[in-house]
Amino acid sequence: MAQRGRPRSFDREEALGKALDLFWERGYEGTSLNDLTASMGIAPGSFYASFGSKEQLFQEALALYGRTFGAPPGQALHDHEGTRDAIEAMLDAVADAVTLPDMPRGCLLVLAAPTGAIENSAVRGLLADLRQGILDQIHQRIDVGVANGEVPSTTNVGAVARYLTTVVEGMSVQARDGASRDDLGEVVRCAMVAWDAMTQPGQVPRD
Description:
Layout: H1 12-26, H2 33-40, H3 44-51, H4 54-67, H5 71-79, H6 83-97, H7 108-111, H8 121-147, H9 157-176, H10 181-198
């Protein structure tokens, strides 16, 4: 039986990649429908038929980012047996990811958040949830260190995890402002000095 309807005249995955680049560079509110259709090379009718809406397209772009450019830091947390090594590798992976050559600088989850229109509150919530997921991953990895005796049981894991998440998000903003990979490498080294201090017995105790 012949397939009904006209075939798409564009590569959907290629168009999605172009949309990701645009959202990454300009943010959600800074990217208009006209910007998207022009960059993706499709007409508005094809856009709505293929992606539904700007918000739905953004959700797909976030998923693509999570599978590609945003994946290495989370993977680093699981690729190293030692907790300290895992944390350092994660921070180094962030420094790499936010300073990729020929790509928008910074992290999409940090820099694409809308700041004004009330109608974009769902997008703000989605990005906040994804950033919360980063905090949760770091917290869980430190919990593993506590469980296996690498990290003192008295450590305030929540505070340490939130500190590290703040470093991650701060590196993204610094990269967008022009910090180099070497600059962020120094930030990582400083963060690891802080890690060593915070994970000494009796330091940053639990409440």
